[in-house]
Amino acid sequence: MGEMKLGAVESRFADIIWSNEPILSNKLAKLAEAELSWKKSTAYTILKRLCDRGIFQNQNGIVTSLVSKEEFYAMQSEKFVDETFKGSLPAFVAAFSKRKKLSSDEIEELQKLIEKMRG
Q1: Which CA distances in Å does 45 have to 10, 13, 53?
Q2: Residues 12 and 46 placed together within one structural domain of the fold
Q3: Is 3 among the domain residues?
Q4: 3-state secondary structure of 53
Q5: 44-74: per-residue pLDDT in tens?
Q6: 60-116 pLDDT, tens per residue?
């Protein structure tokens, strides 16, 4: 399994897959042409790269995800917090909220999440 990360363009392509899966690879190439202005060969090259990383699979021309969009971005968020804030979620939230004021709804949502985690 390759590195679990996506560049900006790969992320847009991955979103097309996640939004349409299961999808035939030739239909995916057509969507990439329409939405990203890619040639068919570019779509297949990027698809192979993402399959090699273990994010998607292409079996018999049918593309599906091995990792859901939610799982993927959860892993990316966890990695970011680990690398940037030594794994401290409170440190991340403190840094985040210094530049962006949390709304009352966001604070309430966070409080509900914390209560749910406490069980």
Answers
A1: 11, 12, 13
A2: yes
A3: no
A4: coil
A5: 999 999 999 999 999 999 999 999 999 999 9
A6: 999 999 999 999 999 999 999 999 999 999 999 899 889 888 899 999 999 999 999
Residue 30 shares a structural domain with residue 43: yes
The 10s digit of each residue's pLDDT in 6-40 is 989 999 999 999 999 999 999 999 999 999 999 99
Taking CA atoms, 113 is separated from 70, 71, 92, 116, 118, in Å, by: 17, 18, 16, 5, 9
Beta bridge partners of 65: 56
Residues 91, 74, single domain; the answer is yes
Which structural domain, as residue segments, surrounds residue 82? Answer: 70-118
Number of domains comprising the chain? 2
The answer to whether 96 and 61 are in contact (CB under 8 A) is no
- Is the residue at 2 inside a domain? no
Q: Are residues 19 and 52 in the same domain?
A: yes
Judging by beta carbons within 10 Å of its beta carbon (0-12, 13-18, 19+), is residue 26 exposed, middle or buried? exposed
For 111, the token pair is 């409080």
d(CA 84, CA 90): 12
Same domain, 80 and 62: no
